[in-house]
Amino acid sequence: MQAQSYQQFCPVAMACEMLEPRWTLLILCEIWSGSTRFSDIQRGVPGMSPSLLSKRLKDMARRGLLTRAIGTDKHTDYRTTPMADELEPLVHELGAWAHRHVDPKMQLKCLDDHLLMWNIRRKIQVTDRFRRKAIIQFIIKVSGKTDRNYWLIVRPDGDTDLCMIDPKFDVDLYVSADLKALTSAWMGHSSFAEEIAHETIVMTGDADLSRSLPQWLKRSSFAGDAAPV
User: Is the dihedral of CA 74, 164, 185, 209 positive or negative?
Assistant: First the structure.
């Protein structure tokens, strides 16, 4: 039995022993969102060191939450097991509960532009507006800090890449946004329309992409559960 075990036969206590190690649920969420390789999982949990992530992935595999397989390209793929997948709706409801009840001002103190853009990347809805490859540059503004730049490369086949180094393509749309405002709108505490009206999100470039931003940039799956600011 583990040194930190609750030493109780209660199923809730046993579930906590399996899921409590820090980052476990966030790693599961990242894999459920489509990341299967170490480097992609790490981008979704930027607060983890590579050594800790490696340790936690091995531990989760040992506990039966993940499987590890070597692909033909020699990369390791991590997949959730059916046992872990039973948790997905429960974890989503846990997040929705927190989103409804945790003070939004507290949520918006925990800002991370890299994590925000990584999540925005996978919420891009490719529509008829993307008949060709489109480059969207986000200029993220944080008071007292140097602007941070990200480039989304949106392809008609639905594949979207996130670059932190200029890919040297012509940019179709520039989105200059205050980090707190963009996070608030994406999480559902405010709307894109409100932030655009307040000029905390400003767009220049392709007029159609600019007008239709709320249609192709889908908000967090928790946005509908947001508590008012």
Answer: negative
Chain mean pLDDT for the chain? 91
Q: How far apart are CA 141 and CA 134, in angstroms?
A: 22
Q: Which residues does residue 67 pair with via DSSP β-bridges, in sequence order? A: 79
Q: Which domain holds residue 148?
A: 105-225
Which CATH number belongs to the domain containing residue 44 in this structure?
1.10.10.10
Q: What b/e readout covers 17-38, taking b as 16+ CB neighbours within 10 angstroms?
A: bbbeeebbbbbbbbbeeebbeb
pLDDT digits 0-9 by tens, 37-56: 999 999 999 989 999 999 99
* Rounded Cα distance, 13 and 20, in Å: 10
Cα–Cα distance for residue pair 74/150, rounded to 1 Å: 29
Do residue 116 and residue 221 come from a single domain? yes
pLDDT in tens, 9-27: 888 888 888 888 889 999 9
Is there a single domain that holds both residue 16 and residue 57? yes
pTM for the model stands at 0.87
Q: Mind listing the pLDDT tens digit for each residue in 67-91?
A: 999 877 788 999 999 999 999 999 9
How far CA 164 is from CA of 5, 118, 152, 153, 223, in Å, comes to 42, 11, 9, 11, 26
214 shares a domain with 152 = yes
Rounded Cα–Cα distance for residues 12 and 9 (Å): 9
Q: What is the token pair recorded at 64? A: 């039966």
